[in-house]
Amino acid sequence: MRVAVFSAKAYDREILESLGATRGHELVFIEESLNARTAVLAAGFPAVCVFVNDQLDATTLRAIAAGGTRFIALRCTGYNGVDLKTAAELGIRAARVAAYSPFSVAEFAVGLVLALNRKIHRAYNRTRDGNFSLEGLMGFDLRGRTVGIIGTGKIGLIFAQIMHGFGCQLLGYDHRINPQFTALGAAQYVELPELFENADIISLHCPLTPETRHLINADTIDQMKRGVMLINTSRGGLIDTEAVIDALKGKIIGALGLDVYEQEADLFFEDLSNEIIQDDVFERLVTFPNVIVTGHQAFFTEDALRDIAETTLDNLDDFEQGRPCPNEITQPLVSA
Ligand code: NAD
């Protein structure tokens, strides 16, 4: 089957080509992301393959449907970028990669906790500059600290297991009880206000839904411990960034680690080092010494990329051969 692979980077091409050659698909790699402007590039392709920041809104979907596209293969887990209602009306099916190495994201979230706590990002710059002063680099032992985990699914659970290994107390919040979380021992489910009130570190691992959009806002920040560390490796829209900037200025939030950002579609996955970045909120964010922002790289391990490519090709095979696809997205993103 001919597949237009949008937002294609060299690493996508390398792994998909090596695996795809054996499956008989003709993969055409397109560097541009898929949106209303670029939808014309999908004309004549029965399937498109897209990534996290491709915008499959109603306008884009109508355009690709008119060009003959009937299947969307997402190379990611989250599908908040797809207007599923319109897709269904147009007879376009979509499938995602429901699961791939959850260790990739969980381990990265732990990396942000460690770097922020012990100021490794600042120490790295200091020693390169011949500055061996320890002023301002003091951290705290993780052992005995309370970690709040919002979303205890695949990634949240592994994050919990690793933090448990450090000797942390764990507070979880989820609509769905995960028995593997409570089985950890020093872990219990609580309501959100209790989690906000008691956590020294809060890590977000729930999907972006209408209900979770701006879950972290001025009101919920007000409930948090002064100096709390906040980690978001899930989706940028979970956080009201301007409220978080106010809380950093007011020293309510003591450290912030972001791998995702609400307006990331205009920035991430591109080299903009020779450009003037126009997003003032983002630019303010990266001026804080106690903030680390990375460009949506938590998934980026060789293990995860291999899992993603294999499942994506399985999904394309299922569609082409008219088989039921276990990864087909049938429900809009609503909370459980
Ligand atoms: P998952 O489905 O296994 O777990 C998500 C959990 O969130 C579930 O237990 C679900 O019940 C819970 N949840 C749903 N609505 C909730 C709510 N309102 N409040 C609290 N919990 C709620 O998903 P996962 O594989 O663990 O992935 C979690 C998220 O991580 C994804 O939604 C995706 O946005 C993000 N992600 C980011 C990257 C990255 O590279 N940064 C990569 C993969 C996934």
From TrEMBL:
InterPro entries: D-isomer_2_OHA_DH_cat_dom (IPR006139), D-isomer_DH_CS (IPR029753), D-isomer_DH_CS1 (IPR029752), D-isomer_DH_NAD-bd (IPR006140), D-LDH-like (IPR058205), NAD(P)-bd_dom_sf (IPR036291)
Boundaries of every D-isomer specific 2-hydroxyacid dehydrogenase catalytic domain copy: 3-329
Nucleus found in the keyword field: no
Pfam families: 2-Hacid_dh, 2-Hacid_dh_C
The keyword Acyltransferase is assigned to this record: no
Transmembrane segments: none
Domain D-isomer specific 2-hydroxyacid dehydrogenase NAD-binding: 110-298
Signal peptide (residue range): none
Residue runs in coiled coils: none
Domain of life: Bacteria
Family per record: Belongs to the D-isomer specific 2-hydroxyacid dehydrogenase family.
Name of the protein: 2-hydroxyacid dehydrogenase
Organism of this sequence: Thermoleptolyngbya sichuanensis A183
